[in-house]
Every structure is written in structure tokens, then in C-alpha cells.
């Protein structure tokens, strides 16, 4: 079939179904069918290589036995199809028995379907959608790889149905971060809020260049670990991994924040962490109790930063995308987290990203923090960080901002790569703004851990939606109040004034 018409064809069919209400339901409907189609293709491979292979899915529920239409008029359709999907397929797959000894490639069927939904109400239209999906020849090398482009388009379309704090990280950015982190065969990588698997995919892409032997290939397949809280992106992630020949993807449908971080052992740690944690959300008190009191926060991004620090192996490397609020935030938890980064990790680089990276889904400005779990050579006593470099990535020439039609591309990261390999202080000769600068750990601590350095010029600021504008205002006001209180306290100390004294 014409692969570029795949999503369009399904969209046109589903528009006529009364059960599909909006993009979120349409794409979720596509997702579970795609999973079963891809899983069936993988089972062909497993049956070929293993004469004793037995499917974990009951025979009547395998894609090949109910979804295929041979054109002989015998394919199940209309009300009979709806009845089978609603009353046999879904209850069966949701009820598959899984225990600790169940192979991962089998267990993912149950976890993929445990919270999945079937929205379509017209059995004839459902048959039409199934036929479009079944026409994909994923056994054909070229078509299977071309399907990756379809998959990317599905992920991008998903954004219009996304909720706050969940954004599709541009592939150019995930690829750049994976390349910079420089994967090595034998290392284990984790993303504790992996979404649809973008960072994992970029890690595999970068690691694949290092694979030379059969043993390397085995390590490649075992190198990834992901956790995703929400069912829909989890389903897409597992499908994504199967398409990348990871037959037993170690991807869990779970919440990374529900375990006490102090209980993690060396076996729970990873050589590399690559992720863009959810931000803008808040967590309940029972979640916050899993973190040390001084590091506990109601903000999701803060908690993920603490989680990463407790699960990054000795000498491990991390690259994490965080919003601007983390850099200039002055609440107790943020200050404690940033001080811990400087004292117990080597926070060597912060890349300031243009505010439109995630356009049109949000204009929240973001940054990449690169840090290692090792002491930097030459670091002063009491610190693992010797110095932190800041670099501002400006918009490419000819761009006012990124958008859905003009997204970030790989070449837009080239200025960072050029600077990364030859770090120098950069000052804009026209505005006199610092574009790149290095600070020692002590200098940053003396500035009360204000990481909001090498900022974008004011004239590049965009007007935020009201909710984001208010949130941004309150954060900046809190930061300003903190600076004022700090200055007043210093004046009082110098003058020897005790404002709490009754004699005052």
C-alpha cells in the first residue's frame, strides 16, 4: 500500500464512527491494533527460529486468526466482529495470567492491554480499519523500515491530544543527546518516564553503530530499561521496541515515583539516564514521602531529578531536559537538589534551549542538564563539580520560532556540537549578552544556586498563555523575594540588628 496514505486512510474511516470522539481516541484505537499486527509479525520470526514456540495469545485471539481478510467473504465483520472484539478479544488479553517466570515477550501482551480501550461502534468500519492495518507488510525489510516514518507521524499527531507536561521530544534533540552521551556496548540505559520510547530509540540508534559481534547484539537488546505510567504511550513504546527488533523489551507499565529512593541498591542503578521528565504537574503527599524530606517537592520534575540521582550508577552519565523554573527556582527543595548536583555529581554542562522547541504544544523554555556520577578532575574539596559551562542555543538563521511545519532538525544542534568540542566564553558583540560562560561550583553556590545564566535576550520572549504566564510570574516573584530577603538578612548581620528583638 502507499505508506504515506496510511494514517490519512484510517482517519477518514474513523471519522464516520460514532464511537470515536477526537484525536486521542482515534490514535489509541490505532495503537492496540498496530500492536497486535506487529506482535503477529514478530511471532512469525519466533516460530521460524524456535520449533517449540507456543504463542502466549490463545489461538482464536491471534491477529492471523481473526483480523486477516483473505477476500473470500469469510472474514468476520459487522456486529459479529464487534461482539468478538468487545466480548472475547479484550477480556481474554486483559485476563492473561502473568507471573514472575513469564517471559517478557509474553508478559507485554497483558500489560499492553490491561488498560486499553476499544471505542469503535460500527463493525463494518472497524473491519475497514483492520484491513488497512493488515495490508502493512512488516515482514518486508524496506516496508518495515518505511513504517518507522508512519510511526513518527502517529506520535506527532498524538500531541494534539496530549495533556499538560507531556510533549513529544523532537527526534533531533533525542538523537543529539544520545550521541553526546556516547553509548558503549554493555552499558544499561534507563528512561523513568519513557513515554513512547523516543529516548530509548535514539539510544539504540547510537549504540547500533558500536555493534560488531553476535555478543554485542545480545548486549544491545538488553541495554534498555523504561517505565511509563500511562497506558497509551506505554502501548506505543512496546510496539516501537518490537519494530526495533527488541523482542523482549524491558519496559514497565508503572509509576517510577512510588518506591522509596533510599531503598535502591546498586542492582537498581544504570550507567546512563536519558529523559525528559513530566513537568508542570504536582504529586500527592504519599508520593512525596518516598523522598528525603529536604529533597521532597510537589513538582514532578523535581522528584524525577532526585530519582535520577539515586538511580545513576557510579561513574554513570545523565542528560535530562528540565524547564526554566528548575534553573531559577528558589524553594527549599530546588535549592537542595541543585546543591546536591554540585556537591555530589559533576554537573558539567547546561544547554539553554529556545522556548519554541516544543511548539505548538507549549512555549515553556527548557534546558538540557548533563551530569556524571563522578568527581571531576581538579574539583575542590566538598564538590564533585569543578565547573559548569552554560551555552545558549539560539534560533537558526531564518527562523523566528520552531513550529509544527518547521520543527527542529538535526543540523540545528550542530552549533552545540561545534562548541562542545572547543568550549570558549562567547559574548554577543551587539547586545553584550553572554551566550556561553563557565562558573565554578563555589560561584554558583554563592549565587544561591541560580542556574539561570546565559539567558535569551528579552526581545525573544514570547507571550505565554495566561496560566503559564501566571505560573512564570509567581516563580520569578518568589525568586526576587528570596534575593531581597537574602540582601536584607546580610544588611542586618552587618549592622548587628535582630529584627525579632522586642527592643527594636
Shape: elongated
Low-confidence stretches: 161-165
- Rounded to an integer, what's the Rg over CA atoms? 25 Å
The total beta strand count reads: 10
Mean pLDDT value = 88
Helix and strand content put the structural class at: alpha/beta
Q: How far apart lie the N and C ends? A: 84 Å
What is the strand content?
5-15%
Order of the strands making up the biggest sheet: 3-2-1-4-5-7-6-8-10-9
Helix content estimate: 40-55%
In DSSP terms, counting alpha (H) and pi (I) runs of 4 or more, how many helices? 18
Largest sheet: 10 strands, mixed
Order of secondary-structure elements: HHHHHHHHEHHEHEEHHEHHEEEHEEHH
Describe this structure in words.
It is a single chain. The chain is α/β, with parallel strands linked by helices. Helix content is 43%, strand content 12%. The protein is built from 18 helices and ten strands. It has helices at residues 6-14, 23-49, 63-66, 78-94, 104-113, 123-134, 141-158, 171-181, 198-208, 214-221, 231-243, 285-288, 300-311, 324-328, 332-344, 414-420, 441-446, 466-495, and strands spanning 189-191, 224-228, 251-253, 270-275, 312-323, 346-352, 366-372, 387-392, 426-427, 434-440. A ten-stranded mixed beta sheet has the order 3-2-1-4-5-7-6-8-10-9, sandwiched between helices. Strand 2, helix 11 (231-243) and strand 3 (251-253) form a beta-alpha-beta unit. The chain is elongated, with a radius of gyration of 25 Å.
Amino acid at each position: 500500500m502507499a505508506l504515506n496514505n496510511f494514517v490519512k486512510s484510517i482517519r477518514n474511516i474513523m471519522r464516520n464512527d460514532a464511537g470515536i470522539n477526537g484525536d486521542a481516541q482515534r490514535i489509541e484505537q490505532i495503537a492496540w491494533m498496530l500492536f497486535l499486527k506487529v506482535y503477529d509479525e514478530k511471532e512469525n520470526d519466533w516460530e521460524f527460529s524456535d520449533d517449540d514456540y507456543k504463542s502466549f495469545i490463545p489461538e482464536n485471539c491471534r491477529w492471523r486468526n481473526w483480523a486477516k481478510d483473505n477476500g473470500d467473504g469469510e472474514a468476520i465483520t459487522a456486529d459479529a466482529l464487534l461482539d468478538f472484539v468487545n466480548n472475547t478479544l479484550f477480556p481474554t488479553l486483559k485476563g492473561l495470567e502473568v507471573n514472575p517466570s513469564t517471559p517478557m515477550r509474553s508478559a507485554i501482551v497483558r500489560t499492553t492491554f490491561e488498560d486499553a480501550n476499544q471505542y469503535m461502534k460500527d463493525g463494518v468500519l472497524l473491519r475497514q480499519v483492520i484491513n488497512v492495518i493488515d495490508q502493512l507488510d512488516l515482514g518486508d525489510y524496506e516496508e518495515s523500515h518505511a513504517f518507522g516514518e508512519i510511526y513518527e507521524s502517529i506520535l506527532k499527531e498524538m500531541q494534539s491530544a496530549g495533556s499538560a507536561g507531556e510533549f513529544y521530544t523532537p527526534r533531533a534533540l533525542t538523537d543529539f543527546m544520545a550521541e553526546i552521551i556516547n553509548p558503549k556496548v554493555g552499558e544499561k540505559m534507563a528512561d523513568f518516564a519513557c513515554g513512547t520510547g523516543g529516548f530509548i530509540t535514539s539510544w539504540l540508534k547510537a549504540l547500533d553503530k558500536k555493534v560488531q559481534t553476535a555478543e554485542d547484539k545480545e548486549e544491545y537488546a538488553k541495554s534498555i530499561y523504561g517505565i511509563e505510567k500511562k497506558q497509551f504511550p506505554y502501548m506505543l513504546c512496546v510496539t516501537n521496541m518490537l519494530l526495533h527488533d527488541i523482542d523482549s523489551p524491558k519496559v514497565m507499565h508503572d509509576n517510577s515515583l512510588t518506591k522509596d529512593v533510599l531503598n535502591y541498591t546498586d542492582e537498581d542503578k544504570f550507567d546512563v539516564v536519558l529523559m525528559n521528565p513530566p513537568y508542570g504537574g504536582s504529586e500527592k503527599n504519599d508520593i512525596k514521602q518516598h523522598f528525603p524530606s529536604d529533597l521532597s517537592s510537589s513538582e514532578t520534575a523535581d522528584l524525577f531529578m532526585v530519582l535520577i540521582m539515586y538511580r545513576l550508577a557510579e561513574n554513570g552519565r545523565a542528560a535530562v531536559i528540565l524547564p526554566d523554573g528548575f534553573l531559577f527556582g528558589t524553594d527549599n527543595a530546588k535549592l537542595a537538589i541543585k546543591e546536591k548536583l554540585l556537591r555530589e555529581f559533576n554537573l558539567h554542562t547546561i544547554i539553554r534551549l529556545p522556548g519554541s522547541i516544543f511548539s505548538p504544544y507549549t512555549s515553556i523554555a527548557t534546558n538540557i542538564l548533563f551530569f556524571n556520577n563522578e568527581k571531576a578532575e581538579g574539583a575542590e574539596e566538598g564538590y564533585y563539580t569543578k565547573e559548569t559551562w552554560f551555552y545558549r542555543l539560539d534560533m537558526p538563521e531564518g527562523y523566528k520560532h520552531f513550529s509544527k511545519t518547521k520543527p527542529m532538525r538535526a543540523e540545528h544542534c550542530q552549533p552545540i556540537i561545534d562548541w562542545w568540542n572547543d568550549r570558549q566564553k562567547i559574548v554577543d558583540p551587539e547586545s553584550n549578552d553572554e551566550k556561553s560562560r563557565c562558573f565554578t561550583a563555589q560561584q554558583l553556590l554563592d549565587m544561591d544556586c541560580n542556574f539561570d545564566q546565559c539567558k535569551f535576550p528579552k526581545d525573544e520572549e514570547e507571550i505565554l498563555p495566561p496560566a503559564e504566564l501566571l505560573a512564570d510570574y509567581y516563580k520569578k516573584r518568589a525568586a526576587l523575594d528570596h534575593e531581597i530577603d537574602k540582601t536584607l538578612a546580610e544588611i542586618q548581620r552587618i549592622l548587628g540588628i535582630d529584627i525579632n528583638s522586642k527592643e527594636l
